[in-house]
Amino acid sequence: MFDRLRAFWQGRVYFVARGEQLPRFLNYILQEGVVLYQTQRSERGMRAQLKLNDFYRLKRAARLTHTRVHIIAKYGWPFVAARWWRRKGLIAGAAVIAVGLTILSQLVLIISVTGNKNIQTSDILQRAEKLGLKTWIYSKGLDLNQIAKNLQEELPDAAWVGMERNGTEIKIKISEKIRPSIPKEAGNLVASHAGLVKEIMVIQGIPQVHEGELVRVGQVLIAKAPALGLPSTPNPSSAKINPAKSTTPNPPAAAAKGFVRGRVWYSAEQQIPLIEDKVQESGRVAKGWGIKFGSRVIMVTMQNSPFEQADKEVLSHSFQIWRNWRFPVEVIQVNYKELKKVHLQRTVSEARQLAEETARSEVLKKVSPGAQVIEETVKVLPSNTGVERVRVEVETYEDLAVYANP
Known about the structure:
By secondary structure, the protein is of the alpha+beta class. Among the domains are: 2-82, 2-Layer Sandwich (Alpha-Beta Plaits), CATH 3.30.70.240; 110-176, membrane protein fhac (Ubiquitin-like (UB roll), Roll), CATH 3.10.20; 275-345, no CATH class. It has ten helices and 22 strands. It has helices at residues 2-10, 22-31, 52-55, 58-65, 77-86, 88-104, 121-130, 144-154, 236-241, 348-366, and strands spanning 12-18, 37-42, 45-51, 68-75, 110-114, 158-166, 169-176, 189-191, 195-204, 206-207, 214-215, 220-223, 257-273, 275-293, 296-299, 310-317, 320-322, 325-326, 329-345, 372-381, 387-399, 401-403. The strands form six sheets. It has a five-stranded antiparallel beta sheet. A four-stranded antiparallel beta sheet has the order 2-3-1-4. A four-stranded antiparallel beta sheet has the order 10-12-8-22, with no helix packed on it. β6 and β7 (169-176) form a beta hairpin. InterPro entries: YqfD.
């Protein structure tokens, strides 16, 4: 370990010596005290390596023995330092960029607001700026807890305000107060689905349908009650005596309340061929790896799919160096999933079963959540030769009444 470090620090030169007097050349350089490493003799000459400081001591021996010396490789810190010194501008630019990034990482560059619906984002940012939170300031000197507390006091509609520092970004999280709102139920109860009314209970309002009646979607089931305290017919004499009182606004009508339950029918059809050719995944997957620089992608392995037909799935893996700093180079993983053509031959029972399962899953998506399924009927419908057609019908018992949209 230490020998390799010492060799790297001193610098090594790999050379080839060619000539007819190589033994004399070797004796001369050994007399000069030059130490050779990894010496090899071949038909084309002699290969060896030596310290950088000893390389210039080969000139006298090479001149006396008429030996040609050629450098084939250089290794070590002196050569690295010389290469860097020739690129002083690049090193200076990298240093400036490093210093600039270090300074920018200590500043607030982005301020974002999340969680607000009714409070304007611009209003939150203006109030936060008055409290000392703004872009291009030193982030370590900010007391985010105190700023969040003061900001919550200035926002009457905010129930809670929190702040989170994520690198150069400050996130302001808002939780708004829940204000009492006008209920959406201030209106008529209408039918959500077409069905047969089996049970009706009116708590408030005027019933518009009866048990055993078929209703359609949107039909009024229970109408809102008229406003209380209003005379059924106006008094014209009082209007003549005091016309100013006739401008008094009438109180709003009371919302309809109650429930209406009934039977609802859902259905779905599906047909499955007995003979079918389709393309599906075979299960074989080939993976390729590449490197992405910005918008440019260089595939290192498996540039193209090895399969005749395949689905291509691209996954990107980025590396987070520190906080929100990410390495500009991403590793790309490409999965090629083989597709193959499959020829399927089904029996009549297999096609009917598959059509039934597909239609059942489709019809259950239409059923309202919480509805009670009373009966399910499966019907085989007439169809063309080579195709099985099935219909699934489901009868449910559920609530029909919903409030109409204002």
